[in-house]
Write a structure and sequence with these properties.
alpha/beta; TIM Barrel; 4-stranded antiparallel β-sheet; 11 helices
Length: 363
C-alpha cells in the first residue's frame, strides 16, 4: 500500500510581493511556496517538489485516492488551528507561544530537582509567567531514561498544591502526566490542559478522563507506552512512522468523542530515538501540520544538544535549546516547551519583529 505525505516548504518572507504563489501555513505568520509530495511504499519512497502555483495541475494527474489524500492533507496544512480556552485565558495560534516547564520532582534531568518543594516551584512558575510563558506545564514524575516510576497518589501530591496556587492567580496550567488519577486531580485543582507522553495509552482510564475533562490534550509519540517510554525505538523511517502513529492515535481518540480541535501533537524528541532520528524529525517538522492539529515541540536541554556540542551537560545547553526552539517556530510549531522562558521569549519576539517587517514591506 502506498501512503502519501505533504511537507510545506519554500517559506517566503514577503508573500504579498508574490500574489498567488504561496499559501498560509495553518493560520500562522508563515507562508510557503512549495509542497514536497511524498509517495511511500514498502519498497520505495518517491519525492517531488511542486510549486504552489502548479499544484492544481499536478494533482489532476494523480489517481482519485491520491488526489483525495492530497486535498485532505493540504486542507489540514492550511487551516487555522482553533484557539485554546484555558480558564480566563484564550491562546490563539496566529503566533507561537512558550510553555514553561516546572518539574516538581526530586530527580529532574534538567535542574536536579530544584523545584521539588511546592513553594519553590510556585515562585519559579510565577517568574516564567512574568517572563512571557503563555502556559506552565507542571509535572510530578521524571520520564528521563531510567527514572523510577512514581505511585500516582505521590505524583498527585507533588503537583496539586502547585497547580492550585498558580490557577488561583489566573495562570494557564497544563498537567504533564500519563496517569488518569493525576489528570483528574490536576483538572479539579485548576489545570486546563493534559500533556500525556503516552498519548492516552498508558492508563486504561485516561481516554475517559480526558473526554470528561473537556480540556485540550497533548498527545506525544513514544515508542513504548510501558513504564519505560524510551524502549523499542525501532523505525523503518522515523519521520513517516511517527506521522503514521500520531495520525492513527488522532483517529482513535476522535472516535471516542474527543474533537480534533482539542488535540495537540508532539513528535516526542528524545523519546526512544537516536540522534539521527531526532534530527530527521526536526528537519521535517513542517510535515506534521498535515495532521491538522497544533504542534507542541519540546527539545529544551535534551541530550541531543549535548551530543552535538562536546557533551555539554544539561545546564549548559541554553544556546542549543534556543536554536532548536526557533527551528521549530520557523516551521510553524505553535508551542515550544522550554526550561529557559525569558531567553526563548526574547528570541521569539525578535523573530516576530522580523516577520512583521517582512509581511508589511512595500518595496
Amino acid at each position: 500500500m502506498t501512503q502519501i505525505y505533504l511537507r510545506p516548504t519554500g517559506f517566503v518572507e514577503s508573500p504579498q510581493r508574490h500574489d498567488g504563489e504561496s499559501l498560509r501555513l495553518a493560520g500562522t505568520m508563515l507562508w510557503f511556496s512549495q509542497i514536497e509530495y511524498i509517495e511511500r511504499a514498502a519498497t520505495f519512497t518517491h519525492r517531488r517538489l511542486i510549486a504552489v502555483h502548479e499544484w492544481t495541475d499536478f494533482t489532476a494527474t494523480l489517481c482519485d485516492a491520491h488526489r483525495e489524500r492530497c486535498a485532505l492533507l493540504l486542507a489540514h496544512i492550511t487551516s487555522p488551528r482553533a484557539a485554546l480556552h484555558m480558564g480566563a485565558r484564550t491562546i490563539r495560534f496566529d503566533q507561537p507561544h512558550v510553555m514553561g516547564i516546572i518539574n516538581a520532582t526530586p530527580d529532574s534531568f534538567s535542574d536536579g530537582g530544584k523545584n521539588f518543594e511546592p513553594e519553590v516551584a510556585v515562585e519559579a512558575a510565577f517568574a516564567m509567567s512574568t517572563a512571557g510563558a503563555a502556559i506552565i506545564d507542571v509535572g510530578g514524575e521524571s520520564t528521563r531514561p531510567g527514572a523510577a516510576l512514581v505511585w500516582e497518589r505521590d505524583e498527585l501530591a507533588r503537583v496539586e498544591p502547585v497547580i492550585r496556587r498558580l490557577a488561583g492567580a489566573g495562570i494557564a496550567i497544563s498537567i504533564d502526566t500519563r496517569k488518569a488519577l493525576v489528570m483528574e486531580g490536576a483538572v479539579q485543582a485548576g489545570a486546563f490542559m493534559i500533556n500525556d507522553i503516552s498519548a492516552l495509552l498508558y492508563d486504561d482510564r485516561a481516554v475517559d478522563v480526558a473526554r470528561a475533562s473537556d480540556v485540550p490534550i497533548v498527545m506525544m509519540h513514544a515508542p513504548s507506552q510501558s513504564s519505560d517510554p524510551h524502549k523499542d525505538g525501532i523505525y523503518k523511517d522515523v519521520v513517516y512512522d511517527v506521522f503514521d502513529w500520531l495520525e492513527q492515535r488522532i483517529t482513535a481518540v476522535e472516535a471516542v468523542g474527543i474533537s480534533r480541535d482539542k488535540i495537540l501533537v508532539d513528535p516526542g524528541i528524545g523519546f526512544g530515538k537516536s540522534l539521527a532520528e531526532n534530527l530527521a524529525i526536526i528537519n521535517n517538522l513542517s510535515m506534521y501540520h498535515g495532521l491538522g492539529c497544533a504542534i507542541l515541540f519540546g527539545a529544551s536541554r535534551k541530550r541531543l544538544i549535548g551530543a552535538l556540542s562536546n557533551e555539554a551537560d544539561a545546564g549548559s545547553r541554553l544556546g542549543g535549546s534556543i536554536f532548536l526552539a526557533m527551528k521549530a517556530v520557523e516551521q510553524g510549531a505553535q508551542i515550544v516547551r522550554v526550561h529557559d522562558v525569558a531567553e526563548t521569549v526574547q528570541a521569539i519576539q525578535v523573530w516576530r519583529g522580523l516577520r512583521d517587517a517582512g509581511l508589511t514591506a512595500t518595496i
